[in-house]
Specification:
By secondary structure, this protein is α/β, with parallel strands linked by helices. The protein is 33% helix and 25% strand. It contains 18 helices and 18 strands. The strands form four sheets. Strands 12-11-13-14-10-15-18 form a seven-stranded mixed beta sheet, with helices on both faces. A six-stranded antiparallel beta sheet has the order 6-5-4-9-8-7, with helices on one face. It is globular. The relative contact order is 0.09.
Length: 508
Amino acid sequence: MLTTTDIKTIAQPVGVIEKMKEPDLSSLSIPESVLSRIPSDCTFQFFVLPFSSSESGTISAYMANPFDAVALQSIQFISNATIKPFFAPREQLLPLIAKHYGMQKNIAGDQKTGMTTGSISFNGSQTVVALVDDIIHEAIKRSASDIHFEPFEHELCIRFRIDGVLHEIMQVPALKTLEVISRIKIMARMDIAEKRRSQDGRIRITKTGRDVDIRVSSLPTDFGEKIVLRLLDKNAFDYNLDSLGMDAKQLLLFKKAIHMPNGIVLLTGPTGSGKTTTLYGAINCIKKPDINISTVEDPIEYNIAGVNQTQARAEIGMTFARSLRTLLRQDPDVIMVGEMRDQETAEIAIRSSLTGHLVLSTLHTNDAASAVTRLIDMGIESYLVASSLKLIVAQRLVRKICSNCMCEDILTPEIKESIGLQPNVKLYKGLGCPQCGHTGYKGRTGVYEVLPISEQICNRINQKAYTSDIKNQALQEGLITLRDHALAKLTSGITSFEEVQREISVLS
């Protein structure tokens, strides 16, 4: 872990510029090994010219605007290296970039052949098949969850979602958009002639001995079809409940609830908050040969050995409610319903829990106590909610600070006090390094609020109490709120002020 004394040296690329006088570039000679560290399109886009590389991998480069922090961060992400910037006038840099990279360039961007990142590159001679393969393999390598292919007027923009945040990876000329999109649709066995309606498809590939399922979705836009690939890497999926991020008390309550013979355990939170991961972790925890576990999902994210998983298909009448009714005739012990989307599904799930089944499901609410009100608003009688609910879990995801470039985050006492922390509490952040793609974060962890349905809370539900009354009762019984759990992860150095502030602004 880095300390505050290390920050000056390491943070130099984003704040300290060497010799702001104009350099003499007339006799500049740059080795090919150095030039190859930064792609040509990146040099023209940001007016940057690398001229040397240290043994540690740091690239020294001339820049027209070395104070441009956004450009520096982009170059570091693309080159996967730390940049040490030096000033040079733009009029001197342009001819030198063209000379050393062996081509003239239209700076306005209408002749762009594409940005590159690390091992991904695109040029006129590269086949679209190879380009798409490279993009997918790079996304798997970087543990991206999604790939976005977004067509615009002059380019096809490709972005990766890594740890919940989108990063622009490269741009391909607009004239190649149709070829790239068609290649993906062929791989996904979609109709390449149909461009007016949205479509769904699947791809399965093997990368370094790992099977990766890819869910493909297309959507017509003004400049062509937008394609999003959801990468489902079973090898990278962690089924272990102990590693999801709950504290010891929360984990004990959750495990106790999912081992009950009947009742409902609900997970709540917005889309992308990790609810499915927690559900799969729960199933993996309780599955054994003498238990029949069945699921209804839309879609099936991961295949779990020993579990009967069913895909809901509303277009052919296999809705959640109908699939759930069928499951009840399959002698289940545990049922997982991907989402309680309507009153019919919720009623069947609740009545199933009252007839000797354990039901695991999800709802979209901001916190745990709000799930009670949501069920009642859906038309479920309060006495059914009170008698069936055993536990409600609300959750979010925050990015974890990269352990390789972690350092102390210097914040004013006023900022700390604004989120309820003591002024002397130490906080941390990531500076950004090659291991984390210069983002300062690597991986994510869950922030949880685990609310067991006690007898007192059960009585309040029967009395149709407000959400605030239920939450106040839970607080009296020791509830750790989402906000409190997020602050605990902040003060323990797991995540940063930036991440927690984003969540607290939602939870406050």
